[in-house]
Design a protein that fits this description.
Two copies of one chain form a homodimer.
Chain A (H helix, E strand, L loop, with lengths): L9 H16 L6 H8 L3 H7 L3 H12 L10 H17 L7 H9 L4 H24 L5 H22 L4 H15 L4 H5 L1
Helix pairs in contact in A: 1-2, 1-4, 4-7, 5-7, 5-9, 6-7, 7-8, 8-9
The first copy, chain A, binds a DNA duplex through helix 3.
DNA sequence: GCTTGATTACACCGATCTGTGTAGATAGAT
DNA sequence: ATCTATCTACACAGATCGGTGTAATCAAGC
């Protein structure tokens, strides 16, 4: 019997630590030795679960790629909830930007797998937003969905550099203006 | 007499190459050996001009921190010109996001100097935007300026991952909507 | 001609990187 | 009790990292 009860399978333990370190310090800044040491395992064990660091990075991004939970609320509520949670994310101390955008920035030309996952994630989010605004009956869902996505990523980038606690709220206000301009109001959306 | 006429001072030659490699491949992905080899000089010469890699990175960012040229056009024209040039930047093949946001992402906790420069840059751009929208007489220049900055950084992040050729135009449309909502129209701004 | 400053080549440092090879310890299942 | 799978420690490989020390070379100015 080991001193510390593992409870979780080894793969999950590794990914927990890898996620924390990759996101907090950056992918290139964290070596596999550091991850293994932090988990408390040998480097050999890590390489028994993942074929390479790139493979571990891909698994890290895949695990961050969680679908947005289905909701019974109105599409407008769901959109506004997204912006509210965004602003809350800024408030949490460990916030370090979007892990997918960061990954693309860090890996550059190499590691095509990670690029693909990041691309798929962003397209998934755009598709989610397009679905919501389509249900609101706006004339140009594609444009509005992209614009709302732009607001989210822009607020994230601004907060990453400037740490402006108001940036989330301002992005939310801008979203409201764009929605209203597309003919969406709280009253209209409730109908 | 050397085979290749230097023409530019050594420091500029180094920075030219460092800029290209740092921006294109990433700061952490490029070593000083690579830069020196690309310039065609010895590593010793590079370190005679810059105290460290961090110092070179700082100089690279400083050189990217160019003031927006003064213009006699109307503030609204200048703002819209900014969005137009943004969309053009996406079209250029070598576009790899905002070098300042990228730097903050890549360096993480260390290299405080680079963080400061990135922060100063973003604040300078926000201040420029605030100055322009203030001249337009909007009720809340701080909010609108931040929102326009969010649109710019958001379009950059979206384009970095998704390579959507329409994202620049959609950000520009969103900017027009936000300006109009603040009471700014082409006719009103010209007055 | 001589001095001065810049640049050169090149070896070298210690640290870190990803990744592997190996042999033994451990624990659970049958 | 034995088989099997996992994890361990640890050494090591080959490359790259940022950075330094040194002696020779080269060109320009006086």
């Amino acid at each position: 019997m080991s001193l510390v009860a593992p409870k979780q399978p080894m793969k999950e333990r590794i990914l927990d630590t890898a996620d924390r370190l990759f996101y907090q310090r950056g992918i290139r800044a964290v070596g596999v030795d550091t991850i293994a040491a932090e988990v408390g395992i040998s480097k050999r064990t890590l390489y028994n679960h993942f074929p390479s660091k790139d493979g571990l990075v891909a698994a890290y991004l895949m695990r961050r790629f969680v679908p947005i939970p289905h909701s019974e609320k109105s599409p407008l509520d769901q959109i506004m909830r997204t912006f509210e949670r965004l602003a809350q994310g800024f408030a949490s101390k460990g916030f370090r930007g979007c892990p997918f955008v960061n990954a693309v920035t860090e890996i550059g030309e190499s590691d095509t797998e990670a690029r693909k996952i990041a691309l798929a994630f962003k397209e998934d989010r755009i598709a989610w937003m397009r679905d919501k605004v389509t249900k609101l009956g706006v004339p140009d869902p594609e444009t509005l969905a992209t614009q709302l996505a732009i607001l989210i990523d822009g607020a994230i980038a601004q907060d990453l550099v400037r740490r402006d606690p108001e940036v989330g709220r301002k992005a939310q206000q801008a979203a409201r203006v764009l929605l209203a301009h597309a003919g969406v109001t709280a009253a209209a959306a409730a109908s």
